[in-house]
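3.2 Worked example (two chains)
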Amino acid sequence: MKFPIVVTHPSDFVHKALRQLLVRSRFRPVRIETTLSEELETYLRSLESCIWLVGVGQCLSTTNALVRRVVTTTPGVKAVILAAYHTPDDILPALEAGASGFFSQDIPAERFLKSLELIMVGDVVVHPQFSCGQKVAQPIQANGETKANSFVQTYNDEPHLLQPFDSRSSASIALGPKVPSSEGSADSVAPSLSRREMLILRMLIEGASNKAIALRLVITESTVKVHMKAILRKLRLQNRTQAAIWARNNVNESDWNKQKSSASSTH
């Protein structure tokens, strides 16, 4: 099964190149347009999940505002910036706005597809044309706070995990190494999450839709949405993708098993 991808890019030439590239990949270009119209934004909201490839000359504040609006109102959308020109200072604001990836337009084709696959499963990937990641990492670490988040950057055609960045902002977008827990339990990592919310997080990691979660937990989809809003509020995240990344990096397998057995004993 191919994963849907929606493309907005001002160049018809790039449209043709992307069609040729994506047809041989795990991705299915369902729409390729020059701009994000109201009709196309409505179409994005109709999709359960997809990648939205945002082609720009340079990623400006207007682009970030658009990305923030779309990913906030459409949690299943993973926005990826494809920039013809950019500086290190362009990258972090885009990620803080909710983008799941930031690519230079001259990214190699195979790296492009591999990076999209990482983003599809919940990673955040950056591929700028710099010799190393420090130019991006340093501004992130400048406030000297305790760090809990990190993201993947590629250079020399290989992905590298950058140093973590501050997770207290509601705009934080990806989690790196698992946060140490003194008791080694899910409750100590996120004491305010209920057992059911923890189970929903586990299903998010597996890529389950709200409908699939509702069927497995024998609850309504509207109840799942209520739980999702509570999870995002408690973890101070923006969408379900961020929640899945948080869970993958902050709760280990024994924690999940404990939550699962506890939930089973209540039925």
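3.2.1 Second chain
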Amino acid sequence: MPDRRHLWRGIHDPEMVRRAIRVNVDAPARPLRSGETLQVGISVANVGAGHYFPTYVTPKVTVQAVLLDEAGAPLPASLQEAVIGREVSLDLSQELFDTRIAPGDTRTLSYVQDVPTEGLRLRVRVEVDPDHFYARFYQATLAADGADKGKAMLQQALDNALAGRFVVFEKIFGGTTAAKVPTANAEVDGG
């Protein structure tokens, strides 16, 4: 809320989200060693939202850490994820979890992974799915076959919701220097 004005851009605006959070990754800048146990702290701080991040049940923010091979392909067995958000059942009757970050607070996640071979790097990414709840609702409705007349509209709404995902932070560690991906947050700490 710049200058205490709500401009209604919110979670759908990547730049607004980048200004609301600060990501710090405590990872080695040196090459990763085969056989070592990598222990990395990943912190996401709510530094500018002015309210819980994210605010309500619709969005989901995912923090991902994964080892990459020499070609840059992820090693699926090394993927670890944590969700920042508030998830409720589709009928809104039950809260499933609430891991949102209060204003001024920080959530720290630990990535612990054995490094199986030489030449690997670590990628840390923060991805925003601004319409996560809606996508779940559209998928469930389409799967129930209860929307014959509106099926095309629901499918379009689902496609739009899925297309709205974006990355607000991505950085690769473990080479001679930490590589910053163009979508990375300008206020990144650590490395």
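3.3 Remarks
Strands lie at 21-26, 37-46, 60-68, 80-88, 95-98, 106-114, 121-129, 166-173, 179-180, 189-190.
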